[in-house]
User: Fold these one by one.
Assistant:
Number 1:
Amino acid sequence: MQVDELKEHISSYAVELLKERGISKLYPPQEEAVRRGLFSGRNMVIAIPTASGKTLIAELAMIHEVIRGGKCLYTVPLKALASEKYREFRKWSDIGVEVGISTGDYDSRDEWLGNADIIVTTSEKADSLVRNQAGWIRNISMLVIDEAHLIDSAKRGAVIEVLVAKLRKINPSLRILALSATIPNADEIAEWLNAELVESEWRPIPLYEGVFYPGKILKLNEGGVIEVKAGRNVESVVKETLEEGGQVLIFESTRRNAESLAEKLSSVVRDYAEDCSDLAEEVLIENEGEMSQRLARCVRYGSAFHHAGLLNYQRELIERAFRERRVKVICATPTLAAGVNLPARRVIVKGIRRYESGMGSVFIKVSEYKQMAGRAGRPGLDSYGEALIVAKTRNEAVEMMERFVLGEPEKVTSKLGSENHLRFHTLSVIAEGIANTLEGIEDFFSSTFFAYQNEFTMRWEIQRIVLQLEKWGFVRSDGTIVATEIGDLISRLYIDPLTGYIFKEAARRFDNLTEMALLHLICRTPDMELLYLRKSDEWVEEEAYAFRDELTYFPSYYSSEYDWFLREFKTALCLHDWVNERDEDVICSKYGIAPGDLRRVVETAEWLFHALERIMEHHGNGLSVEVGRLGERIRHGVREELVELVKLKWIGRKRARKLYNAGIKSLDDLVEKRSVAERLIGKRIVERVLAEHRR
Ligand SMILES: Nc1ncnc2c1ncn2[C@@H]1O[C@H](COP(=O)(O)OP(=O)(O)OP(=O)(O)O)[C@@H](O)[C@H]1O
């Protein structure tokens, strides 16, 4: 089908824009979606492989909806993906379609988005906008769920189903378009959504899958499994691809493996890559710690590693350099497969097992492997893509072939049934006034995918949770169930009610807490991601005893909670070093973490301090002022006296300290002692600061 045929549905202007993007003809699954009612207003589930054009299907449907006066919400699982989609959709502004993005603080309403036609956001942020009753949510006429198969995710899946159920309650005629990878039970998702299902295995570039073992590759071909000659090791397979002008994406199970393989491969890659010294320098712009140095050394020769320990700008830099074909090989942990779109000629899956606590080394899921394999083949550059699993022996290769290459991905199952998810969403359903009886709450949850998949009633579970919320003082029940003021606040702050309870109790009991006690308090909540304890971390216990009298909680050495407590305390100690201006690299090596981990801990702590401040305020507890100040220090990683300086753009914790020690404590001081400041932090930076803040 030619795109010209779409004029009546999306306008000739939109068709012209598509042509400018080089799209003149629809891919077969796209055509199928059109034929099956993409412009008819019915709900749809599109379950097709990676890179087969799902996003364009959504764009066509959204443009059609906007032309008819509708408003679309496009939800993705990660902030990075939201930015990627926002950049893509911005192109539609050329024909007058307003595109907005919302990924900021959880309790903001982002009212300015009232004017946007298409709003891109994460599922969590969308749910928090519903909780905070952003006015424009009522006007949403179409919901697009990207990566809908992530309903299966233990951490992020529940919010997708609850969001769907809520938005359908708000607007019963809401249209839903769910985009998913190929999964065996896409029909269940379609039936749950009352949607037309479009399924296809079509790919724009053929994908060949196989298993490598030293000397040979078992390949799946149209005629069956064949065996072809190959090199002795992964390096030789990589070399072969580079020789043919392709790029390689390698998945490893751990960060350490990814890093050391990238380092090892840099001596192979350097013969095929141009000089990337400029990129290596860029890697070190914000951080010169051990991990960044290793990354810079690899990148110089066109090889890189990619995992959650990198800083955001480093990840983006690597991804961009790979797209520009300067970086030729990326060794990544599996987080990359679920994230941004980064195809390569060859995908090598080296980490086919993963360590799971209590279970040891287990195979990854077939669906995870398929997600990685699906990254092979770069549209416009490669005529085919190839995915290879790495095995040690022929026997193992045969086993991998059967289990993964010929295996069927697992079914998607709802994760909403776990207590913490139900607790979290039950409070919001009551606070938003969606339901105010047990039957009403049950009725609400009966429209979720969980209820679709599970026949048993949730009544007892919900009753137990409501009783718990009542005991904590978050809901009141006398015939009808309503949220108390604090319950409503906790729902809007988007924290686990258990976190809310811990904070509320602290607000009730204490009017004086030390810096360390406050830091430890937020680390006691289920919303904080805790650092792990290493064997060499005995010092954590010693430090904990030193602070024993200050803390709000200190279990007995014999308690089953003692080890968990040490993890909480270690995390608090890390934040303590951060707000006391310990050097970032020193913190990373002391706590055994990477810069990206530190930033994540800091970001979560900042959010929790904001919530704690609001709850203290609500309780009329004067500690709220102190909590607010500490929150500000966490944001910037500084002692109290630097807060004013770091609020200035371009002034980070290091520059602020230099200025402060020279007697420059504010913007006024900076203006007055400009030449001193220029000597300390550079003329260009001072110019930038003054240009930004000159009154
Ligand atoms: N009909 C088409 N003709 C030419 N190129 C197309 C067409 N449809 C999509 N593309 C291009 O193919 C590439 C992959 O498409 P897209 O990102 O939409 O796939 P996807 O299925 O959404 O991928 P993912 O599974 O990663 O979300 C994009 O560069 C897109 O512009």
Number 2:
Amino acid sequence: MTPAPIAVALDAPDLETAARWAALVTPHVSTVKVGLELYLRYGPDVIASVRGASGVRVFLDLKLHDIPNTVAGAARAVARLRPSILTVHAAGGPAMIRAAVAAAPHTQIAAVTVLTSLTEGDLERIGLTGPADSAVRRLAALSVESGATALVCSPNEVSAVRAEVGEEITLITPGVRPTGAATQDQMRVATPEQALADGADLLVIGRPITGSPDPGAAAAAIAASLRRAT
Ligand SMILES: O=c1ccn([C@@H]2O[C@H](COP(=O)(O)O)[C@@H](O)[C@H]2O)c(=O)[nH]1
């Protein structure tokens, strides 16, 4: 069976837990995601630990955001680990995104538009007035013009972003919650089925899977429900 288009966020406190979660979910999902918590604690070794024998795709979610020269150096440093996807913040601007793309030619650079934990009230306080999808569309267009071939947005904006950037760009959506699951700190959310129906290519799902007593079964259940919906 083809693994589901899900990236499981391995936001674990230790390497053993992350590797265990990765081994349990990899029969069911296409990708595992390493974020700041794990990478800052364990560094590059974490990639091999979660990739394991299965060779599952690893998404390195470091959300780089700095001047172009610094981001180029950081992207070059992690490119040797061959992550499938590396994130940068779209708000870092065109030159920074171009620098990341040039520094990691074998890794897909995904630009994070507006964090899924932010409400429209938060955006207004930051100075981004108007509906969230206007800011997301603007940042998406800028990122693609700068060479990003993937974008991170909430499932609520995925159809607007698809209309803006076309079919060739990979749309990645965190803020995904199965019906009835707690939203926790995610503010702009939708179900896995809705995100996929609206045009997402890869669903990032963490705690609804890793917080389950059986992460393998939780991943398998979401994968099966996506298969039924398509
Ligand atoms: O806008 C964003 C960008 C990245 N994330 C990351 O996705 C996961 C979501 O985990 P859940 O447990 O499913 O909430 C997490 O690693 C974030 O760093 C995001 O949530 N929103």
